[in-house]
Amino acid sequence: MAVEGRAGADAVFGSNEFISWGARSDVGLVRGHNEDSFLLQAPLFVVSDGMGGHAAGEVASSIAVETVGREAPATADDVLLGAAVESANRNVIEAAEQGIGKPGMGCTATAVIIEKNLLAVAHVGDSRAYVLREGTLVRITHDHSYVEELVDSGQITADEARTHPSRSIITRALGSDPDMYADHFSLEVNDGDRIILCSDGLSSMVPDSEIESLAVSSATPKQAADNLVAAALTAGGADNVTVVVVDILNDGQAEEARRRLFQGAASIACIILATLAVVALVALTFIRSEWYLGVNGTTVGLYRGMNAEFLGIPLGELVSTSAVELTDLPAAVRDQLEDGIRVENEEAGRAVIDSYHQQITAEKDRAAQTAETARSETEADGQDGGEQQ
């Protein structure tokens, strides 16, 4: 049965970067007015089925969705979401006491908040929440109804419950008991999951197997909501029917994985940099502890560090010059100085330079003495030769 353009129908759809949604509510083919209410306040979604007759059920369900919409948490906290539903119960009771609606009016409430990969659920009554995952439909709420208790005890089957004469008896609802409590829980959802909320106008008319088939074959949430409402109408439309469908487009896990990967890479980079810094510090400390004698132009210099380069940067610095000329040193020493002669410390280096001074001075003294001796001998020989003549 076509659902577009029907009187007493309401359809809404929308999307954001994480989810897309579609909803349709229809008065059905038997009832004179629609007592269902729904709320699309992403990431919050609520379905409420009113009870209590004309001008009462819709009042109760309207109060329920308004209260939950106002008091629900901003995040997927099922405890706080359950508290919002319980607050709605008190508001429905107080409204009836104040003459708003009718005494005895009530409603169901099934609310969900979707926060990335977390689904928070709060539930009272026989409206339902399903999750469709990889083609399989799973009901995640438990009906608070007499026939559900019969199903739980094994007295009837789920299919028999849909047509049981006592199927309208609700064992827990908003609007009667001030101490009523809401079922609440959380579960994980993934990309591609489809969440379905509905009043019993769908679940009492269409078996879960057909709900699954229609949900799988519908491309968008709006199409799914339309097709499911159409199926309920085709099956007789004995009650108001409301369906809200939400698709998970982005559960945030890919983003979280990228964030963790970036954090891991950053941590590794920090560890590497810290290790390199420690190595560099150790190397610098070692280099600064080294001393050597080397070539400083035409003389011997005292250097701190190493006689080498790293990336074109000298690893040694000149600390002290000397008057020791390279030409005054043996060729073997000059060759060693080209490579750097390691010394223990600055004092040891200065001592070696002093020894070079002493050796050169001694060598020059010996050379001068030898020259003087040779000159004296030559003069003596000349004198001897003159006397003999």
From TrEMBL:
Region Disordered, annotated ranges: 363-389
Acidic residues: bias regions: 379-389
InterPro entries noted in UniProt: PP2C (IPR015655), PPM-type-like_dom_sf (IPR036457), PPM-type_phosphatase-like_dom (IPR001932)
Highest taxon of source: Bacteria
Domain PPM-type phosphatase as annotated: residue spans: 20-248
Pfam families xref list: PP2C_2 (PF13672)
Key words, A-Z: Membrane, Transmembrane, Transmembrane helix
Positions of transmembrane segments: 265-287
Full protein name: Stp1/IreP family PP2C-type Ser/Thr phosphatase
